[in-house]
Structures are given as C-alpha cells and as structure tokens.
Amino acid sequence: MQYCSKCRVFIENPHERCPLCQGKLEGEAKEEEKLFPDLTEQKNRLFLGFRMFTFCCIALIVLGLAANVMFPMKIFWAGFLAAAVTCMWILTTVAFVKRRNLLKNTLWQMVLLCGVFVFWDFLTGYRGWSLEYGIPVVILAVFPVLTVMVKLMKLPAAYYMIYYLLTCAAGLLQLLFWAVGLIEMHRLCVLCGAVSALVFVGLWIFRGKYVVEEMRKKTHM
C-alpha cells in the first residue's frame, strides 16, 4: 500500500502522487480493487450452453429426418420428432430469455404450453383433449407455482398482482369455452373456472386496493 509521509495517510488505490498534497508516495501500489464482480465469463458460459443446446436440437432434427429417409416407414415419424424438438426449443428459449423475471416467465410458459397442447391436438387429429384436459391442468398448476415464488421471494402485492389476475382471466375463459360448446368433458373446466374465481375473490377481499390499482393501470381509467 502506498503512503504519504507528509500527510501521514495510506493510499489504497494506485496513484502517481498524493491526491491531497501532490507529493511523492512511498511503497508499492496495490492493484485497484473492482467495485463490482466481472460477470462476463459467467455470461459467456451461459450463452455457450444455450448455443450448444440449440445445435443439439438442430442435429437431432437433421439426424431424425435422415434416418427416416434412409429407413422409410408408413408413418413419417421424423416430422413428429422435429415438431417435438421445436416445441421444446421454443419453451427453453423463452425460459432463458425471461429468466430474470420468474413470475413473467411462468406466465409465458403457461401461454406457450397451452399453445403447444392445441398444436399437438390438431397435429394428431383434433379430439379436444387440449381444451378439456391440457389447458385447465396448466392453469391450475400456475396458481401454486406463483404462490410459492411470491412467498420465497417475499414480493409485494403490487409486484405480483397482475400475474395472478391474468391467470384468473385465463381460468375463467375456460368457462366460456364450455358455454359455447367447445368443451364436452367439463369437470376440469369447471374446476379451473371455480378455482380462478375463488382466487380472484380472495385477492379482491384481502388485496382489493392493489387489484383496483392494477385494473386502473391496464384500462387507463
């Protein structure tokens, strides 16, 4: 550590002269300590891992198509494999991009999973299982996931309210699907709508102030 004999002070960071009297300093200068950690290497490793995952997905699709062409079968299974890998890549990519906001990430995953279920329902010959089983189960699973994250991170109501309200809206939408005849097996649909309604009522009773604020923000009232 450098020392100024005139001012009788030690200088932590490297200086050519004393910052007080501009006199000569004694001793050897230590390397300047960084105030913030360097996350460049960690970030590079993270992006490298994502690029490797993307390459593996593409390789799996290409190898599957090649194998299906070399050994043809009645069913073009490579197409289903490509669709499955693509869906997995999309879900993983969104999770990677939205990793800094776990609540928003959860909502994105809910929307994407619902879309994936509908896509596969139509791809395999539409039978309605996506609306009757897949989507209600996903929405019902989101409520406990949000609750656990809110409790663990000790988030204020103003921060998480919008995510609960959007999930409630998605759950109540299932009742509309049932009302217009899109859903035949209505048990899960009714359960999803009932749970969503109860969550909304609970939020209104115990966190009504924040519910009103969020609704005003989104409707600009």
From TrEMBL:
Q: Which domain of life is it from?
A: Bacteria
Q: From the record, give the transmembrane residue ranges.
A: 48-69, 75-95, 107-127, 133-150, 157-179, 185-206
- Provide the alphabetized UniProt keywords: Membrane, Transmembrane, Transmembrane helix
Record Pfam families: DUF6320
Record carries keyword Transmembrane? yes
UniProt xrefs under InterPro entries: DUF6320
Protein name, UniProt field: Zinc ribbon domain-containing protein
Q: What organism is the protein native to?
A: Blautia argi
